[in-house]
Amino acid sequence: MTDSTLRLPAEWEPQAAVLIAWPHVDTDWAERLADVESTYLALAAAVTRFQPLIIVVADASLRAHVTAKLQGTQADMARIRFVELPYDDTWLRDSGPITLRDGDRFQLTDFRFTGWGGKFGAEQDDALIAGLVEAGVFGKAAHKRIDWALEGGGIESDGDGTILTTWRCLAQRHPEQSREEMSTILRDSLHAKRILWLDYGYLEGDDTDAHIDTLARFAPGERIVYQACSDAGDVHHSELQRMGEELSALRTADGKPYTLYPLPWAQPIIDDDRRLAASYANYLIVNGAVLVPAYGDAADNEAARIIGEAHPGRVVVQVPCRPLIWQNGSLHCITMQLPGDLIGG
After folding, report:
1. What is the pLDDT of residue 345?
2. For 135-266, where are the alpha helices, taking DSSP H only?
3. What pLDDT sits at residue 1?
4. Other beta carbons less than 10 A from residue 190's beta carbon
5. Three-class SS state of 127
6. How sure is the predictor about 23, in pLDDT bands with cuts at 50, 70 and 90?
7. Within the chain, how many helices (H) and strands (E) appear?
8. Is residue 335's pLDDT more than 50?
9. What's the whole-number mean pLDDT along residues 323-327?
10. Mean pLDDT for the chain?
11. Residue 120 vs residue 316, higher pLDDT
12. CB-based contacts of 123, cutoff 8 Å, min separation 6
């Protein structure tokens, strides 16, 4: 049985802060550190226009470096808090806490992080939530460890009990389990009412095995924003067309179709003969705004317009994210929103 008083908030609900971890020379970003830092600096400036930002840094030396960098930007330093902890990588959407809430009661749901199914070392990232709790970041919030692999980028919540996810990802993480078994675990651990599955949708260059946050996102008013592909000659066309058909067939809890917002398709971005996964669906919602990835592509502005239309009343801010896709993720992947009044002193 689930505790019906707890729920997984939608991302567009009020937030206490956004959580990120800063790239450094001992992460996989080392080869292109200056490029990716430019994105993190732009992100910090964008987030702190609207709300606090918590930055995890590896040590005091990195903290001093980041502070100096930020002071040369429009970031609001009064809204930035640093926490020193070790980490393997900077994809905090997947290693950060999935926070349930009931009014002013919060539960930090700490699933096992396996480096996307054992692709990468993840021991320090798997311990990150416990480290943040020990550092007092979350006040009196409960911390619940769940020994089952799940990443935050693998689920979408509408805030009202519906979770959207992909079969491709969770079947890779848990090949021994059936869809029904996994649905039960997701309902129980996330206190959800129902689980919606997508069987189609992927992006070349994505090593998360089709995280939902690269493909389709809930938006307020029973909307879904999703990455489409209009180029019939592109390898993604058939798969994303089928995903669009799946989304069209989904129904709300009241039995109505969702209003769909297909996003434009960026032209292929090739790096060292490798195609990179440039998804506009990987955007971040903050208080009063939506931060949208920009890739230096002709479709950037149209993607921003559509995302803004799906999230009315919010300022739309484009963040340059081309450096991020070199490591197979984008804007939403490097962030984790923290809901309500979660943050401690």
Report:
1. 55
2. 167-173, 179-190, 237-249
3. 41
4. 23
5. coil
6. very high
7. 11, 18
8. yes
9. 95
10. 96
11. 316
12. 88
The DSSP line for 202-239 is --TT-TTSS-GGGTEEEETTTEEEEE----TTSTTHHH
- pTM, whole model, 2 decimals? 0.97
**Domain 15-339 class in CATH:** alpha beta
- The secondary element (H helix, E strand) that includes residue 301 is helix 300-310
Residue 330, CB-side half-sphere exposure with 13 Å CA sphere = 27
Q: Kindly tell me if the per-residue pLDDT of 17 is higher than 80.
A: yes
Mutual angle of helices 60-70 and 33-48, in 10-degree steps? 70
Question: Count of residues for the chain?
Answer: 345
CB contact set of 161 (below 8 Å; sequence gap of 6+): 7, 191, 192, 193, 194, 253
* Tokens (6 digits) for 142: 């409960």
Domain ranges of the chain: 15-339
Handedness of CA 190, 166, 129, 314 (dihedral sign): negative
Find the helix or strand (DSSP H, E) in which 73 lies: none
The CA distance from 213 to 93, in Å, is 10
Collapsing DSSP to helix, strand or coil, 165 comes out as strand
CA geometry: angle 49, 53, 54, nearest 5 deg: 170
Token pair listed for 80: 């930035």
User: String of b and e for 34-68 (b: at least 16 CB within 10 Å)?
Assistant: eebbebbbbbbbbbbbbbbbbbbbbeeebbeebee
Q: With bands split at pLDDT 50, 70 and 90, how would you rate the model's confidence at 121?
A: confident
Place of tokens 């991302």: 11
Number of other CB atoms surrounding residue 165 within 10 Å: 22
